[in-house]
């Protein structure tokens, strides 16, 4: 077990597209343990993607179960994940272990369904809403070389709009 | 001495203020930090952190051609400052209602008494000239807990304005 080093932007490696996982071997299992440990070591981290630790494979972990009063799927090991459906849009504030000392507003789908392999390579279907859906979309973006900085929206205008729509 | 200065600037909004001011500072060898720039009532305003070994007089002189040409008002002041000190707000408060005197004063006083530390505040007068509405968006940190802020919100509401307090749960991934 080890806490891995987090790549930080402006490291250009974070902008590359990661490759699918083909072998569900011991090496992968060991990596998943380290990746999860690294996620927990981050301040408030609820998700992590393999490229953040310099492994350019389509692997992410999301676990929002530590947040009170929200719907969640527990600890999700997402290998070769694919979002199947998107529904609704919501603005929320995001930060990233790879972009320290900055948070910004990002629009994400409120509800998604996705398919991903677990650690054993079995295909699993998930449905995620709200905060968990946001975390999944944030992590899956990393697999395509996208940071939340690529999706920032205005702090000023959109906050008020959201309140109007809510009524 | 940490060499940070705060530049404040105001002038009638016109194209080129930001480009010309920042170019003059760049050419003077100054480093820029965090900034807030926006249009307020037809004026363009800048609050900009500037780091430079030059004196305030020297920096002011660098900007004089642009300032005179564009009819701007500027001032530099030395500040104790450093970067990478962002505080993450834990809530957003939106207040709106028919415009009348005292909304901002009453709202922020109630929040102060509840231990609410404002990190960011935007306010606007919207609606029509005949029936203006006042809108305030506040981000901040509830240093004495959210329950105290909720109580303050009820107090502000009793004054006849709409108030919405929403927790801001920053997703760190």
List the helices and strands and how they pair.
The complex is a heterodimer of chains A (167) and B (173).
Chain A: H1 26-41, E1 47-49, E2 59-62, E3 76-87, E4 90-96, E5 99-108, E6 111-117, E7 123-129, H2 130-143, E8 152-153, H3 156-166
Antiparallel strand pairs in A: 1-2, 2-3, 3-6, 4-5, 5-8, 6-7
Chain B: E1 4-12, H1 17-27, E2 31-40, E3 43-51, H2 56-70, E4 73-78, E5 91-98, H3 103-113, E6 116-127, E7 132-142, H4 146-157, E8 162-167, E9 171-172
Antiparallel strand pairs in B: 1-3, 1-4, 2-3, 5-7, 5-8, 6-7
Helix pairs in contact in B: 1-2, 3-4
Per the CATH scheme, the topology name of the largest domain in chain B is Alpha-Beta Plaits
Mean pLDDT level of chain A = 92
Largest sheet of chain B: 4 strands, antiparallel
**Which sequence of SSEs, written as H and E, runs from N to C of chain B?**
EHEEHEEHEEHEE
* Share of β-strand residues of chain A: 25-35%
The biggest beta sheet of chain A reads:
5 strands, antiparallel
Determine the oligomeric state from the structure: heterodimer
Rg of chain A over CA atoms, rounded to whole Å, is: 16 Å
Features:
heterodimer, A: 167 residues, alpha+beta, Peptide Deformylase, 5-stranded antiparallel β-sheet, 3-stranded antiparallel β-sheet, 3 helices, 31% strand, globular, disordered C terminus, B: 173 residues, Alpha-Beta Plaits, 4-stranded antiparallel β-sheet, 4 helices, 9 strands, 42% strand
Short description:
The complex is a heterodimer of chains A (167) and B (173). Chain A has three helices and eight strands, in the order αβββββββαβα.
Can you put this structure into words, describing what you see?
The complex is a heterodimer of chains A (167) and B (173). Chain A is of the alpha+beta class. Chain A has a single domain, classed as Peptide deformylase (Peptide Deformylase), CATH 3.90.45.10. Chain A is 25% helix and 31% strand. Chain A is built from three helices and eight strands; from the N terminus they run H-E-E-E-E-E-E-E-H-E-H. In chain A, the strands form two sheets. In chain A, strands 1-2-3-6-7 form a five-stranded antiparallel beta sheet, sandwiched between helices. Chain A has a three-stranded antiparallel beta sheet with strand order 4-5-8. In chain A, strand 4 and strand 5 form a beta hairpin. The termini of chain A are far apart. The relative contact order of chain A is 0.19. With 173 residues, chain B is α+β, with helices and mostly antiparallel strands. Chain B folds into two domains: 75 residues, Alpha-Beta Plaits (2-Layer Sandwich); 77 residues, Alpha-Beta Plaits. In chain B, 28% of the residues lie in helices and 42% in strands. In chain B, helix 1 packs antiparallel against helix 2 and helix 3 runs antiparallel to helix 4. The longest helix of chain B has 15 residues. The two termini of chain B are 37 Å apart. In chain B, 23% of the residues are buried. The model of chain B has no long low-confidence stretch (mean pLDDT 95). Classes of the chains: A alpha+beta (167), B alpha+beta (173).
């Amino acid at each position: 077990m080890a806490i891995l080093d987090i790549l930080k932007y402006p490291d250009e490696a974070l902008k590359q597209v990661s490759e699918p996982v083909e072998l569900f071997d011991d090496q992968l299992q060991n990596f998943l343990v380290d990746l999860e440990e690294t996620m927990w070591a981050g301040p408030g981290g609820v998700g992590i993607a393999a490229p953040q630790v310099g492994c350019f494979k389509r692997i992410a972990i999301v676990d929002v179960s530590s947040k009170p009063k929200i719907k969640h799927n527990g600890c999700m090991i997402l290998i070769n994940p694919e979002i199947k459906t998107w529904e609704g849009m919501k603005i929320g504030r995001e930060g990233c272990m790879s972009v320290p000392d900055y948070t910004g507003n990002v629009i994400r789908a409120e509800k998604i369904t996705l398919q991903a392999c677990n650690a054993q390579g079995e295909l699993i279907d998930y449905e995620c809403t709200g905060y968990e859906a946001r975390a999944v979309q944030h992590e899956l973006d990393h697999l395509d070389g996208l940071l939340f900085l690529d999706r920032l929206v205005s702090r000023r205008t959109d906050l008020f709009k959201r309140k109007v729509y809510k009524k | 001495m940490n060499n940070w200065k705060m530049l404040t600037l105001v002038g009638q909004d016109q194209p080129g203020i930001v480009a010309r001011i920042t170019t003059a500072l760049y050419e003077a060898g100054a480093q820029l930090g965090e900034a807030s720039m926006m249009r307020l009532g037809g004026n363009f305003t800048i609050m900009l952190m500037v780091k430079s070994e030059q004196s305030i007089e020297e920096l002011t002189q660098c900007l004089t051609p642009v300032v005179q040409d564009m009819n701007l008002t500027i001032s530099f002041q030395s500040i104790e400052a450093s970067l990478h000190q962002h505080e993450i707000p834990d809530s957003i408060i939106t207040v709106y209602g028919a415009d009348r005197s005292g909304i901002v004063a009453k709202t922020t006083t109630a929040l102060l008494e509840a231990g609410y530390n404002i990190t960011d505040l935007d306010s606007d007068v919207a609606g029509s000239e005949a029936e203006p509405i006042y809108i305030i968006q506040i981000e901040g940190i509830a240093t004495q807990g959210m329950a105290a802020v909720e109580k303050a919100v009820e107090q502000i509401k009793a004054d006849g304005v709409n108030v919405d307090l929403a927790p801001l749960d920053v997703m760190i991934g």
